[in-house]
Structure formats: C-alpha cells, structure tokens
Design a protein that fits this description.
Length: 458
C-alpha cells in the first residue's frame, strides 16, 4: 500500500498548499533513483501550474543522471502510448485529471503503457521519503530532449486500426467538447479525418477551464447537448482535463453513462473474440453484467481506478475493459485508457449497422444510479470506514451479500450501494443503483444518512 502521497491514480493535490515545487523535484529524484538509468518521457496538461511543475520534475530526474524527453501539452493516453511506442523507461504526465484547476499532480506509466502499480508507487514514495537519492556528477547529468510528433503519431496509429473509409462514408456530423483541456490538441484533428462535418466547443486550451468544469457529466455538458440539438448532429464527444476519459452524447442530447457504452462495445467484441472476459470496476451498473452474460461473456470486477482495471485485464487476458466514469481500455492497442480509439469504435458500429448512436444505446437498459459525496477529512476516512462496515449492512433493508473489493458494497434484494473513500478528494463517495427511481432514492437516503451520522460522530 502507498502512504500519503499517492491516491487512486498517481499524485493529485492542491497546488501551493498540499503540493509545492520541491515535491516535484523530490519525486523526480526519487524516480531517477528508482530507474537508475535510461530515459523518461514527460508531458503536461493545460493547467496553469503544469509547465512549472514539469520543469521541477525534469530537474529532479536529470540530477540523478537519467535523461528526459519532453512531449509538450498532450493528452495522458498519448503520453502512455508514446512511452510504449518508443520504448521509454517510464512516462510521467503532469496532470490532475478531472479535478478543479487549483489541483496539480503526476501520473506514472511503465514501458508497457500500463500505469504504475501500487507496489511501484509505494517504492517511489519510500525513496522520496528517505531522501537517499542517486546523485550524478556535473558531467553525467541527464539530457533534456524533445518529442514533437506524439499527437500525429498517436492519430496515425489509431487510424491504422480503424475502418476509416467506412466511417467517412457515413459523413457523420460530430460535435466535440474537450473542455479547454488536453483533448483540444488531438480529438478535433482525429475527428476531422473521419467526419465531413465537425464542430468544436471549448476547443482552446485554458488552464482555468472557463467553458465548463473539467469533469464531463450530465450537469456540465449543457452547452454540448444544446449544440447537438441545434445542429442535428449525429454524435457528441466530451473529455476531462487530461483526456483519459470520454463521455458520449446521443443525437437527441442524452448523456450516456460509460458502463452502458462498455456494454455496447463488449457485446460486439464478444461475437468474434475467443476470450470472453470483460473487466470493470465495482461501481458499474449491473446492466453491464447482464449484457455481457447474454453475449456469452463474463464480467470481472476490480477496485476503482484505471490501473486496477488494466492489471486485472492483463491477469485474465481480458478482451476489453473500463470504468463507468468514461474510461475504456483496448488491450490490443495499449494498456492505458484510450478515449480516442473508443470514439472511433463507436463510429464504426454506427457505420456498420447504419443505426444512430441513440438507437444502438436503446438496446442497453438504464437502471437509476445515484451518486453522492459526504465530506470527510482524509485523516478520518479509515476510522469512518470501519464504523460504516459495521453499521451499513444492518441499516439497509434486505441485505443479501457484502463485497469488500474496494470500500464496502452492500447488495440488496433490489439494488446495491457502494461506499468508498475517495482517493483524490476529502470525501466519502456513496453510489447506489436499483430497478426503479423510488427504490434508488430510498437506498440513497438510508445509506447517505448512515455515512453522514458516522462521520459527524468522529
């Protein structure tokens, strides 16, 4: 297990109070010491603080004698893909993903394009805390190079594995909302290769995220929905800050949950795949399990986090996987989330079937799923979860099973609830699902009330 530095995926903290530049230098030194030699690929998102944090990180790495190559402002999936493509020893993305603009952070990627495991992060943190860093002489310092072709290469490799001519033949009208984040430098250019008509909103990189908040969901995507309806577009695409997530919107303006998209793609993949395993996280809808089972496949659940999904996919040789938040991993391409390839796969389905995205999604049921947050200081999360584990199963009606893969999952005769501490914010997340809205509301009322009472009592 990692300590206080790493969260669900990498480091993510508020700049200036929780994260200072000397931490970036120290993490650079720790990484260089961990690697011993070789080359690290660095990149950053559109946040105001990201270039400065990258400079500090690079200085720490080079001080150990390890080389750095800078890819500039690119999406996280591009950084991960290029780490594998060029065989760099590690890739590091300076980003705080979907968090608000005051946050900064770091994500670490291995040569295979998989994110660092908890064991690898723990080793980095151990070196960081020990301050026993490898020190290079002045004439043995690492070099500082540049990679200026990352985005073009990523686009070309995606196009090489897609049926470009088929997608082009449909002349789709596509609306893109990168949210002023890193997706601005890739998605519009990829879609331009595939659609005759393409419009981008919030398409200029801006670390203040002026167009909308960085996390794409039904609440934040109102402008995208309006644009789709006004222009009679076929398809909408939205990203978070570092573009490792994608949320799709139908031609009627419906914002589609990621677990339903996993189910849609999985159903088609399973028709021709020998391996029948699909991997997702504990907070995905049961609709995914039901759809995969009906298609002859099996769903395997993991803790929340794309690295957890990637690890389990490698272990099980899974054919596809992802998270409800809009993470999709295509193992035949690479082991990091790739929302760009996912967008192409959905367009391929639309083109092959000659059906609209909304029509395709209508075959994947929707169960009411509710999410809530209960504020809880990080130093009280462990104690809170111990009490919740005792109280929640008794507080819920008709409990039939308990799951502790990640947090506490309580399965009921009708529906389920998942309570887990956030790895990125001082909150405890509560998620529930049920066959009807009334039952879901009742489950959330009981579960959230129980969690709030316990946190307040600590």
């Amino acid at each position: 297990m990692t300590g206080n530095l790493f969260g669900t995926t990498g480091v993510r903290k508020v700049y200036g109070t929780e994260f200072k530049l000397d931490m970036a230098i120290g993490l650079g030194k720790a990484l260089g010491t961990y690697l011993g030699s070789g080359t690290v690929l660095l990149a950053h998102d559109a946040r105001i603080t990201s270039p400065m944090v990258e400079d500090a990180l690079a200085a720490g790495i080079m001080s150990t004698g390890v080389n750095v190559v800078r890819a500039g402002l690119i999406p996280t999936p591009t950084l991960a893909f290029m780490t594998k493509y060029h065989g760099y020893d590690t890739g590091v993305m300076v980003t705080a993903s979907h968090n608000p603009p005051e946050y900064t952070g770091l994500k670490f990627w291995s040569r295979s394009s998989m994110g660092y495991t908890q064991a690898e992060e723990a080793r980095l943190e151990e070196i960081y805390n020990s301050k026993e860093f490898q020190i290079a002489e002045w004439n043995e310092l690492g070099t500082d190079g540049k990679l200026e072709t990352a985005v073009d290469r990523h686009i070309n490799e995606i196009l090489a594995v897609c049926d470009v001519d088929l997608i082009r033949s449909r002349e789709f009208k596509i609306i893109i909302d990168p949210g002023n984040g890193a997706g601005c430098v890739l998605t519009p250019y990829l879609m331009r290769e595939l659609g005759r008509k393409m419009v981008t909103i919030n398409g200029q990189t801006d670390g203040h995220f002026p167009g909308r908040r960085s996390e794409p969901d039904e609440e934040s995507l109102g402008n995208l929905v309006s644009m789709i309806k006004k222009t009679s577009a076929d398809f909408g695409i939205a990203h978070d800050g570092d573009a490792d997530r994608v949320v799709f919107v139908t031609e009627s303006g419906e914002v589609v949950r990621g677990d339903r998209v996993i189910a849609l793609i999985a159903r088609y993949i399973l028709k021709s795949s020998k391996n029948k395993i699909i991997v997702t996280t504990v907070d995905s809808s049961r609709v995914l399990d039901e759809t995969v089972k009906a298609a002859g496949g099996e769903t395997v659940r993991t803790p929340v986090g794309d690295i957890q999904v990637a690890i389990k996919m490698r272990e099980t040789n899974a054919v596809f996987g992802g998270e409800a938040c809009g993470v999709f991993i295509h193992p035949e391409f690479h082991e990091a989330p790739d929302p760009f390839l996912t967008s192409c796969r959905v367009l391929e389905l639309m083109a092959k079937t000659k059906r609209s995205f909304g029509d395709l999604m209508s075959e994947i049921p929707v169960y009411p799923l509710l999410k809530a947050k209960v504020e809880c200081p990080n130093n009280k999360k462990e104690a809170a979860m111990k009490e919740i584990a005792k109280a929640l199963p008794e507080a819920m009606k008709k409990t039939v099973d308990i799951l502790t893969v990640d947090g506490l999952g309580v399965f009921l005769e009708e529906g389920w609830v998942l309570v887990r501490p956030s790895g990125t914010e001082p909150v405890i997340r509560v998620t529930c699902e049920a066959p009807t809205q009334e039952i879901a509301d009742s489950i959330m009322l009981d579960a959230k009330g129980t969690v709030e009472n316990i946190v307040e009592s600590l």
